[in-house]
Amino acid sequence: MLSRIAESLFWIGRYIERADDTARLVDVHLQILLEDPWAEEDAACRSLLSVMDRDLPGPEVTIGRQEVLDLLAYDRDTPSAIAGSLIAARENARRAREVISTDLWEAVNVTWTQLPARLGARRAHSYFSWVRERSAVVSGIVDSTISRDDTWHFLVLGRSLERADMTARLLATRALAGSVAPDWRTLLHSCGAHEAYLRRYRGIASDESAAGFLLTDRLFPRSIVHALGQAESCLEGLDPLRDHAGVDEARMRIGEARAGLEYRRLSDLLDELPEHMERVQRSCSAASDAIRARYFPAGAVTTWMGGVR
Amino acid sequence: MTDLFDGYPPGAAWDEVIDREGEVRPAYRHVHAALAKMSGPELRARAESLARSYVAQGVTFDFAGEERPFPVDVAPRVVTGAEWDTVAPGVAQRVRALEAFLADVYGPQRAVADGVVPRSLITSSTHFHRQAKGIVAPNGVRVHVSGIDLIRDEAGTFRVLEDNVRVPSGVSYVLSNRRAMTQTFPELFAALQIRPVADYPVRLLEALRAAAPPGVDEPTVVVLTPGVYNSAYFEHSLLARTMGVELVEGRDLVCSGGRVWMRTTQGRQRVDVIYRRVDDEFLDPVAFRSDSQLGSPGLMACARAGTVTIANAVGNGVADDKLVYTYVPDLIRYYLGEDPLVANVDTWRLEEREALEEVLDRLDELVVKPVDGSGGKGLVVGPRASRAELGDLRDRLRADPRGWIAQPVVQLSTVPTLVEEGLRPRHVDLRPFAVNDGDQVWVLPGGLTRVALPEGELVVNSSQGGGSKDTWVLADRRGPRPARPPVDHPHTVAPQSSVPLDVNPDDVRSQSMQQQQQQHERRGRAQVQDRPGGAPC
């Protein structure tokens, strides 16, 4: 497979997952702001933006729901907002048009054509459910129409890495915001994990078990450990490990992050949650770089300069 | 633009939004302003999206054998924090008194000995079950969940209309109404501070676990439903789902060796607490109706042996008998030594000879209710009944005075409701839900407001084709945040250098490439036009 195509597949996976996760995250946070009369809107919005790697305006500006929506949901120019990442996913699908199934292409393309313009805060919820629905369509088609060859491995590799990264960001909101921090119930809702969690723990909610569920549960597909494990198995599919061979850089990074969560006491993790979550994010980023270096090496870009003799 | 409140008629009843001088009451200032500002089509569009979200969620109830979306009105009902802080303790007080009464009825019957209630009141109740005598509630709770129906009379005072301590339903509509309304009116939720209701399943589960038989460390709680055809099935599944417990039917349970078990893929699993939504008569074919397929044979024996807790307790119906209702203020004084905080509606006990005569004289101006009916069944509103109906009723009252009570026609308070002509007053009641965990009675802020949709209709019941409203209890902005578990690991770390979100470098590069490619094409076209046939050189 062409490196360029593989890279596009990897990014389709990441962008669609990013849109999905961001929609869940913002939706639940806004809902909480509405339902909790004691929430401090400005502080909660700031912590959300800082976790999502956005520049914060100075303290003299009040940030509200509309600003959060504009920056994280409706911005079309940056692939880290929902609209932007759906557009970017479609661009990548266009580049890989010949290897992806027509079903998949149409799902991604239809999403792009239906992308609504900026909506008011009132209709944000319907926008988010639409985004979630579209990304569910895309992942469903990926899982049901694509052979389990490298195409699928790259798509799912992107999806899993992004999922681990986004879940880590989400958990970081818990620690960063101090008194306005979303409680674990909110975080579980963001991941669509609330009902799975309730069934697992029979409704005996405790902060510790909730954290454990999102960090290290082996069965829930959005827990960090599960997502990292899935990424590892995709790398394994791309390049099966042989005897006597060391692991490559990407697998090392991912395995390290996974083991750092899996083989550590939960109480220790919780004590230093922001640090651990930052480490997971950095590992994902490093793994992403390593994957790019190994599988999608861009030829050194030649720059022509006006010669000075 | 016409105001949806145009032509809002003043009525005899207490209107909760517009007072008698035509002014808006302070509690509704925000809501009224928001609704009045909205154009008819806009409000209707929101009503439409509200209804759609209900169909999508599957929030339905069974109406004459047909699954219908539960009608929820767009205009909310508002209760101020101060009003609520008088109502909620009144509801809790009533629940405590009914608990004491039930413990007494199925125990020593002190109240009878002390002459507070006649013995016949208890023994003649159709819901007094001798089978329940001697079953001990592990933490002293029989009324784990109750729904105390309240109304506001012509003076705006809250009064109790009836008690429901058997299997009160409707709380799922409170939860889903709130969810749907926050999505439909985010701006109102942002402007007002409304007390949240989402805690309910957690509270309920805590209360059920607290009621487990002694010695059980990790009790298994289940919700027992009659099945998918029950009108409240949506509620049963919602409660089981939000509590994370199994939703079982009678056939999933088996009683053996003095214990209750459920059949699972992993073999039998012991059940400790059953939150049952099945009526007493169907619970156990051995003890009650032998043709019941909804319960599990042997359940009562297990309950008596103390190996399983049935919540709410069997036989609670004796406490929400409408004749007992007339004694509740006395019961509050007798058991608790307190004065009732929320009054009853004046009621005639037809058993008493003078009362019966008076009622028979004034039948055309009173409301007459059967004592054991629920859901408005059998109720007759005097002023609306025909002469023949009244004559028929007269005979029935004479034949069975124990079976009926009479009350004056109370003009229930009204709240604007969206109908064909715009927002119009419709009568409402309120069912707050109370959960008793043995230590305290917790009252869900708000509750289910039911609204009678036909004009002037005073009977408010979903089984009679009524609708509902989301009920907003305002929080006092300056009040303290209610106790919430403290942040487990507080960090005062300033937002650190956040980890950048990766993007495909191609997406950044592509913009310049796109420009170049387009430039290339443009230049090519230009050259073609400039020098037809000529190659660039």
Task: Tell me how many strands of chain A there are.
Answer: 0
What ranges of chain A have pLDDT less than 50 throughout 5 or more consecutive residues? none
Strand composition percent of chain A = under 5%
What level of helicity do the residues of chain B show?
Answer: 25-40%
Inertia-based shape of chain A? globular
**Major β-sheet of chain A, in short?**
none
Protein name (chain B): Circularly permuted ATP-grasp type 2 domain-containing protein
Pfam families (chain B): CP_ATPgrasp_2
Region (Disordered) (chain B): 461-537
Domain Circularly permuted ATP-grasp type (chain B): 76-452
3D structure, described in words:
- Chain A: It comes from Cellulomonas aerilata.
- The complex is a heterodimer of chains A (309) and B (537).
- Chain A is built from 14 helices and no strands.
- By secondary structure, chain A is an all-alpha fold.
- Chain A has one domain.
- The radius of gyration of chain A is 20 Å and the shape is globular.
- Chain A starts with a helix and ends in a 14-residue tail after the last helix.
- With 537 residues, chain B is α+β, with helices and mostly antiparallel strands.
- Chain B folds into 2 domains: 26-345 and 410-473, no CATH class; 346-409, Dna Ligase, domain 1, CATH 3.30.1490.270.
- In chain B, 33% of the residues lie in helices and 19% in strands.
- Chain B has 16 helices and 24 strands.
- In chain B, helix 9 (233-243) links the parallel strand 6 and strand 7 (246-248).
- In chain B, helix 3 (81-105) crosses helix 13 (328-336).
- The model of chain B is unreliable at 484-495 and 528-537 (pLDDT under 50).
- Chains A and B meet through helix 1, helix 2, helix 4, helix 6 and helix 7 of A and helix 6, helix 7, helix 8, helix 9 and helix 16 of B.
